[in-house]
Write a structure and sequence with these properties.
- This protein is α+β, with helices and mostly antiparallel strands.
- Helices cover about 50% and strands about 15% of the residues.
- It has a 5-stranded mixed beta sheet, with helices on both faces.
- A hairpin with a 5-residue loop joins strand 8 and strand 9.
Length: about 525
Amino acid sequence: MNHYSIQIQDILQNKHFQSAEVVAGKAGLQNIIKWVHIIEILNVENFVKGHELVLTTGLGIQNDVDNFLYFVKGLINAKCAGLCIEFGEYIQQVPEEVIELANEHDFPIIVFPKEVVFVEITQELHSYIINQQYAMISKLESYSELLNKETLYAQRPEEILKIAYKYLEHPLVIKIDGQEPILYPNTTKKQKSNILEKLENGSIHKQLLIQPIHLFEHPYAELILLNENPSEFEILILDRTATALGQLFIRNLYVDEKKGMEDAEWIEEWMEGKHSKDEIAQYIFSQWPSFELSGGTVFITQYNEALSKKKLDITYFKLFCRSIFEQFGFLSIVFEKKKYIIFILLNKREDHSMKERVKEALNKLESSEVLAKIHPSSLQWAVGKFARDLQLIHESYQTALDTLYIKRKVGAKAEFYEDLHLFRLIYNLQKSIDLEQMVKDYLQPLIEFDEKHNGQLLVTLEVYLQTNGSKQETARRLYIVRQTLYHRLRKIENLIGEDFMSGEKRLALEFMLLARKFMVPTS
């Protein structure tokens, strides 16, 4: 017997099988038996669910080779554990064609050369299976209780693995992306290196049982059991161990989050450009010793009072975001400032894909259940420019803030600073020149006319420029007839000149229309 399960090879030692002979499928003697059925019909697939040991007298076969093959194929397709046949009135031998089929699929066929009592076999095996299941459940409950107690005090994953190893008696590995794998029990450096190398190249994947560990609905790590033929008991033990490890990881993340808040002053100085390259490298190395500096960016989320009233756990939200960014190749340093949650995203992969990966992460965040019940206006976010040198990450921080400000001013949907284009230029120009006066120089006649007569000249000019002077398309977008459009265009020509569509003047007008949007945001 093996770990609370019963296999074909185990029942051969039973008193009812003393005279039985395995005539086919000997390679499948380790098949697990979960129940025993007596079946005397040909169409079996609707009556079994897998792992059954099937007993038959051959009543439905009647020495017919085709029926025999059909019957055995049905059992194989239904993933039954094996077949026991009583030789007697209906069948006296197993045809070679059936033996070949069974051998091909490692499907054991056992024959009783003389009459046996099927009812006694089923009763005895069922009793044993039920007792084994009960013993397994009791053992699992004991393990779960022990695990729950240990998880309350455990600080490191190895403390959980130590308990699991006592039950599993096979090596365990935890793989977390971006971190050194954890192997238990610890072995020599050479043996550990050999196992981890095989894990990386996939040469022992057939000998593994892999249990994913999910945090916040997403894969965070893998718990791996180095065992080629795990039993149901071992699978259940591994599942409970993965759950306990997930709880430990979440608790540790909350602790890290609290520690990050203690580091907020240093991080804020970093965002002000006050730290040297070496100081930044030392800080990151203290957090992630194996991380290689490869640039990054800053992602800022601004939340309002409405979000606070909905009682969204901000700490949970930060951890959830971190887990998503981790999936797309970023380590996160997080801190809060007023109503801002600031993520410094450290890139772990190739530089050229940073923007695309951040975009995918934001799409996943936006469609998550965490934000499903939150009104879109409760959260605004922006991504600063990408910095290849982490000493310049403060520039990404400032441009992320600029992006939030510009989005608010003009209602732009862009999330990335580099997608704001002319609005970036307008924002920077506003800091150094009298942009309002420049707008007046070009657009004041139209502004005054619209205010006095509600003439809609500004919007008409904007759409006319956007459509490259297409009167038909402009009229369609404005929902006006062509004659009304012609009247407005003549009025525009009278007020700002007939040359308003000429090269440089047209560019200037387009720019000033955008600048006015920036200074007078749409409601």
